[in-house]
Amino acid sequence: MMRVVALSVLLLVASCIACAEDTVELQYWTSPYELRAMAEIFEQYQRENPGVKVVIGQSAARNLVDDPQRVLCAIVGGDPPDIIVFDRYAVGEWAARGAFMPLNDEVPGVVGPGGFVAEDARAGDPDAIKEENYYKPCWEEATYKGKLYGIAIGTDNRALYYNKTMLVKAGLVDKKTGAARPPESWNELREYANKLSVFETTGNQRKLKVAGFVPNYGNSWLYIYGWQNGAKFMSDDGRTCLLNEPKVVEALAFMKSMYDDLGGAAAVNAFQSSFQGGELDPFLTGKIAMKIDGNWVLSGIAAYKPDMDFGVCPAPMPDAGQERISWLGGWAWIIPKGAKHPREAWTLIRRLSSVETNMHMAAILARTEAAQGRMYIPGLNANRLVTEALFNKYLKNDPNADPKFVNAMQVFIDLLPRSKYRPVTPVGQLLWNEHVRATQYAILGKMAPQEALDIGTALVQRDLDRVFRPETGIEVRWDHMVMLYFGLLALGTACAIVWFYTRFKGGLQARREAWAGWLFASPWMIGFICFTGGPILCSLVMSFCTYDAMAPSRLVLLRNYQEMFTADRLFIPSLWNTVYMVIGVPLGMAFGLGVALLLDAKVRYMSVYRTLFYLPSIVPGVASALLWLLIFNANNGILNWALEAVGLPRLNWLDDEHTAKPALILQGLWGAGAGMIVWLAGLKEIPTDLYEAAAIDGANVFDRFRHITIPMLTPYIFFNLVMGLIGTFQIFAPAYLMTAGGPADSTLFYAYNLFNQAFRYMHMGYASALAWILFAVVFALTMLQLKMSKRWVHYQGE
Amino acid sequence: MDVEYGSPAARNLYRVAIHLTLIVGSIVFSMPFLWMVSCSLKEDDEQMTEKLVWFPRLPPYQPRSPFVDAREGPELVRPEEVSAARWARLQPAIAEVLDAALKTVPLDMGATPPQEAHALVRAALWRDVAQKIPSEKLRDEAGLREEIAQIWENTARPYITSDALQDEAKLRADLAGLSQAAARKVPPDPFRGPAAVSAMLEQAWAELAAGIPSDRFGSEKALTMELRSRAREMARRIGADLFKPEEERTGDLSRFVAKLATEQQARDSHRRLYRALAVGDVTLRAEGKSDVRVPVRSGNKPDGELIWKIGPSSRGAEVGLRQTSCDNKPEEEVRYGFREVGERACVRAVVPFESKEPPKAITIGLKSDASWNRVWFAIELNGKRYEAVEPALLAGMGKRFGEVFYQLPSAEDEDDLRIRHWLITKEVSASGAHAQPGTVKIELAVENTSFATKVYDKATYNYKNSLRYIPFWRYFLTSMFLVVMNIVLAIFSSSLIAFAFARLKWPGRDLCWGILLGTIMIPGQVTMIPNFLIMKWLGWYNTLRPMWVGAAFGSVFFIFMLRQFMKNIPKDLEDAAKIDGCSYWQIYWHVILPLVKPTLAAIGIFTFMGVWNDFMGPLMYLSDQRSYPLSLGLFAFQTIAGGNQGMMMAASLMMTLPVIALFFVAQKQFIQGVTFTGIKG
Fold it and tell me: ipTM of the assembly?
C-alpha cells in the first residue's frame, strides 16, 4: 500500500514539474484540417518570435459550436486558449455574451482606442488587416453591434454537383448536343431525382440503392431553399424571427416532397448511414447522382477521382430563369476574453491572414498534392486578395489545370457576391438548431412544415425578446451566498457543540466514541458540505434565477418552473422518452438474473464464461458508442444481418423514431452482465440447507426457485430496482454519444435536454430548475418504492 | 444450483445442457466484442461494405509484382437493367466486342498469367463501359414499357402538390399540358418509328389526364397512384411491332459498346486493376528549413535523368525499374520477383542535400501494389547510416500514389500531439556508408515476406498505426495515475467513513445516514454547474485534481456497501480489542479493515472501471490535450479520425484489454465483496 502511495505522489510531482514553462505558450484551438501545412508556418513564426511557442490543441469536441461546452468551460474556467478557430456565424452570439475580445475597440490594459485593427493601421504594418480587402458578407458575419470580434479565415459557398455520366445514362441530356444538362428549376430537380433514383425490391420492402438527389445531403440545409424562395429568416432590425414566414414553409414543403419521393426521410437516413468519406464518398461511387455541397468538395474529387465526369452549376431555383443565389459560411479567428497573451495572439492572426502566408501555405499544400500526383484546388478565402491570387495562380493561369475544376471553381467565385449569410444575432445557435429540428420533424412527417416552423419561431422569438428587454430582477451575489452558507454552518456547528457539552447524556466512553465517530465521518461531512450540499443549495438558488455563466445572475422567481410547463416544448417529450426507457429496468433485471442463475452453476471454466458474459459492459463508453452505431447500422449492421438470417424484415433502428428507443433498450440488455455481479453475490448468500430441505420435501426446480430463490433475493431485487430507476432517469450517454437526441427528438432524454439547455444555450438557471424537477421525480419514486418495499422485501434474520 | 442430487446420467445431461447454454450465451454476449475485433483487423474499404462481412480479407501472396488484381473477379457482371433472359443472349456478343477491343491495345499484365489477366481486365472494362450505356439500350421490352410509364409519372409528380390539388380544373389542364414535354423525353433508340410512338404517347397522356375521375384529386398520394397505374396501362398499349426486333437491338448495343470501349477506356480500366510498386519524388527537410523536393526526373525536365537506380539485392531476387507515369506524374515502377521468403529487392537514389546533420524529415512518393510486402528504408550521409525502426507496409487499395514519411527522433516528439504519421528512423553502425559531401543516399528495400507474416502484418496494421498516431502511452499513464489515486483514496476514505457509520455511536449518526443515502438520488446534473464553478474558484480548471480529489471524501455507493459488510462482523472481536486497550483507530486498522478486504477489492475494481472509462469529467475540466486521459484522448481521436473505423476499433480494444484482464483475474473477490445482507431502509 505504501508503495502505491509513494508511486502516485511521485507521479503527481512529475506532472507538476512538466507543467512549469518559462516561454510564452500560445494555445491555438482548431479543427484539424490543414494542420500539416500549418506546422511549417508555425515553425517559421516561432523562429521570428523567439520565446513564443504555438501549442495546437484539438479541443476534443465534435463541433466547437454545436457542442460548445468545452469552449464555455475554458472561458468561464479562466484558462481559455489564446486563439480559437470558431464558426463565423456563432461569433456574434458569443460576442453578445461577452466571451470574446473586440478587435477594433479599446480593451483596457491590452490595447488602446480603435483596438488592434487601428493600431496596425497607425503603425502602417504592411500585413495590417483591412476591412476593404474582405468580402463584405464575411467581414459583417463576424461583426456584432459595430464591433469586430473575429477575423474571417476561409469562406465557402454552395452549388449543385452533378454526375454527368449518370445523367447521360438516364437520358437527361441536352437534345442537341447530347451532353448532360443540369436541372434548372425545383420541379425539374425533382423530376431528375426521381428518374435517377434506383430501388431494390425484396418482398414488399423497397430499399434505396441509388439516390438521384437528397435535399439535405451534402451541405444545403433549409437555409438554401428558404433563401432561394426569397425568405429572410430574421427581420432587418434583428428583432423579429421570420423562421415561419410562408416562403420558408413552402421551401420546407418542397424538401419534404423530395424525401417522400425517395420513400421517406427514415429510409433515406438508413441509406445514408453507411456512407463513407474519401475514396468511398457516395458521390464518387455513384450512390448519389446530384447534391448541393460546398466548394471544398472539389478537393476531394481531385484527390480521389480526378477523372470523374462531373459538373457544377448554381443550385436550381424555384423557377427557371431566376437569378441564382447561394449562401456562405466559414471560420474566424477569435481571441477569447481572459486569454493570457492577446498581443502575441493578434500578431499570429495578422501573420496567418496575410497574403504572403496564405500563398506560402498554398505552396506547401500544392507541393504535397503534387508529390502524390494530385491536383491542388485552393479554397475560397474571406480576403478577396487571397482568393483571387490563389485562383489565378493555381487554376486560371495554370496550363495544366483540368478545365472542369477551373470552371467549377469559377461558378463558386461568381456566386460569392450574390451569397447570403446566416443572420448575425444573439440567438444564432438556437435559430440554427430550431431550423434543423423543424426540418427533421417535417421531413419525417411528424408535423406539418408550418407547425414545425411555428414552434421553432416561438422559441427563438422568446430568447430574442429577452436579449432586447434585459432582466430587471435583483442581482444574486454568489459571494454573499457562500458567506451566508458557511455562516449558517458555523452557527449550526456552534449550537451542536454547546448542546454536546451541556445536554449530552453519557459517560466518558460514550463521549470518546462520539468524538471518534465525528472524526471518522468527517471526510464525508466536509465533502458533503463543500461538493454536494453547497452545490445543491447553489443550484436551488440558481433555479430561481437567470444565469449564463458570464453575466451576473438575476432573480426571476418561479419563471423557470413556469416555463417548463408552458413554453418548453421539449420538456414533456423528454420526460416521456425517459419514462419509456424504464421498460428496460425490469427487462434488464430479469435478464440479468437469468444470466446470473446460469453463471452460478457449478461447472468448469466458469471464470471464462463469466468474463465473456461481462464483456459488453466493460467496453468504454466512447468505444461502445462507436461500436453500437456499427451494429445498428441499417445497411450492413450485424443486427439487420441477424434479422434477415431468421427471415424477419430489416429495421432502421437508430434512424427511425419508432425503433430508436427500443434499440437503446436492447443495447442496455446486452450490458445486463453488469447487474449480474450483484445477482451472483445475492445467490451466493442463500444458504444451501434451504435447498436441501426443500429437495427432501420433494420440491422441484421451479418450486425451489419460486419459494426460496426469489424471496431470498428480494433485498437484491429491491436494490437493483431502486438503483436501476435512478440510473434510468439520469440516462445521458447514449444521446450524447450516439444519437444527439434524434431522430425527431425520439431519444432526447431528460438529462440530455438539461445538458443542452445549460451548455448549448447557456440557460443555466433554467437547467437548474429542470434538475430540481428531476430530483423531485426521482425522490418521489424512491420514497414510493421504500414504502411499498415493506410489503414484499424479505430480510434474512428478521 | 444442485448438481449433487440425481442419478449420474441425469447429472451428466445437466452438465452438458448447462455448457451448451453457456456457450450459446457467450457467443451472443460477446458478439459486439467480436465485431469490434473483426473491424479492427479490416482495411478502410472493408469496413462499410454493401453486405456484412464477418471475416477480414486475407492478404494476397504476391512474390512477383506488378500483377493484375483479381479481387473484382473475371466474370462479366450483368447490369441491373438487363433482364436475366436478355443477358443470356447479350453476354456472348458483348464478350466478343470487348475481346476485339482489347486485342488492339497492348497492355502490361505483369506477373499474372495472360489468360487470367485478360479475363480480369475484360470484366473491368465491361464494368466501366456498362456505367455509360443509356439504360434504354439495356432494357428488354417489358423494362422499356415500365421506363416509359415512369417518364410520365416523373414529369407529372412535381406538379401534384397540396396547393395544386385545390384547383382541380387547373391541375388537369397543367397535367395535359405536360404531355408534350413528357413525350419528347421518350428515348427514340429502341423504336422503329420513334416519331409515331412519341405522337401516340403525347395524345394518350393528354387524354389520360383528362380522364382521371374527380375523386382521385383528394390527396397527393391517391392521384399519384392513379397516374402511375394509368401510365403503366398506356405503356402496355404500345404495339409490339413498334419496337425494333431483338437482333437489331443486340447489334445496336454491340456497336455502342464497341464505340465506348476505346483504347483510352481499355487503358483506364486496366489501370484500375494494375498493381505495381512505384517510387517517385523525394522531399527532404533540414532542421529549421523548408521542404526541398527532388523530382523523380532531375530538373523536372522530360529528358532529365531518373533518380532511382537498382541497388544491391538478394541473390534470388529479380529487380527492374521502368519509367511510367501515374495521374500525369512521372514515377519509376519497381518490378520484382522473388523465389524465397526473406529475399530483398533494393532500389536507391543519391540526391543532393546541403547539410552536415541528417534531414529532419524525409518524404518519399510511393505507390503501393497492395501486396502486403514490407519496405525497409535507410538513408546514408557523411559516413553514417540511419534505418527506419519498422518497415512500411505495401497496404491499401493500391490505386493511388501516396507518400511515406520518415523522421529522426527529436525532442519535440514528446510534446507534440499532432497525429504522428511518420516512421521513426535511427542511426545504426555501418562501415563504408555513403560519404560524398552535399548528397545523401536513400535506399528502399522490398522484402518478400511469407504468407503468415503478411497475415500478421495486416492483423497488426491498425494497432501499430493507432499506437503511432495517438500518444497512447502518455494518455495511458495519465489514466493510470487517476486510477491509482482514486483507488487509494476511495478505499481509505470510504472504509473510514463506513466504520463510523457501522461501528460507532455518535449523535446525529442516523440523520447523517439518511442524508447520505438521499444523495444517491441527486442527479449529477444538479451539482455539475456549481461544482465546476467551485473547481474554477480553487484554480483547479485544467488540472487533473477535479478527477481525483473527490475520492478523498468517500463515495456513497462504496460507503453503503462497506457499512453492510461491517455490520455483519461480530461485536466480540471489537470488544476484545477494546479490552486490550486498542484505540478506535487501531480497531479500524487492525481488526475491521483486514476483515473487509473482499469488499475493498470490489471497490477497487468498480473504481478502476469507473475512472478508466470516465470521460465527462475530463471533458469539462481539461483543456490542454497533453493532460488527457485515455478516455478523452480516444474521443479526441475520434473527432479527428472518426472516418477510420479500423484504427478507432483497434485503439478502443487496446483501451478495453486492461479492464478485461482485471475482471478475469479478480472476479472472485469482486463477487464475494458485494453484499447487501441486512439492508434495512
Answer: 0.82
